[in-house]
Description:
globular; 8-stranded antiparallel β-sheet; alpha+beta; 8 strands
Amino acid sequence: MPAPLTVSTPSEREIAISRDFDAPRDLVFLCYSRPDLIRRWLGPPDWTMPTCEIDFRVGGRWRFVLKSPDGFEMGSGGVYREIEHPQRIVNTETYDMDWTGGEAIVTVAFEQHADGTTTTRTTVLYSSREARDGALATPMADGMEVSFKRLDAVLESQPAA
């Protein structure tokens, strides 16, 4: 089982998250780009994802809405800026309830290792230091680790990409 994610702050506006997965890079990349797979791992296990729309191309839009068991909905969306299969995805991200002070830029780099595992390095560039610090003050990292554990299970159940 992979170690939990690590979080660092490489600049006053960035949060960097690193996580290893026991799966090849192509398969991990696929799980970030296909709605049917994203629905299986993104978010808390007792939440649903009524909206998972992806136009996976540079300039294409994405939109996710997560729904809690008591009906609370959290929506977010953005535009894909760069896609380098299977090394890198760069997209914008804005939450419907704009708690991050505007648009953030999210970069996910997928690093393949000789042993067949993959490290994802996610960097989120916020609009300000205050927005970054606000994100750090939330249980964001705990929530991401919950999702990544769910992704571990999806990766175990998928044939190689």
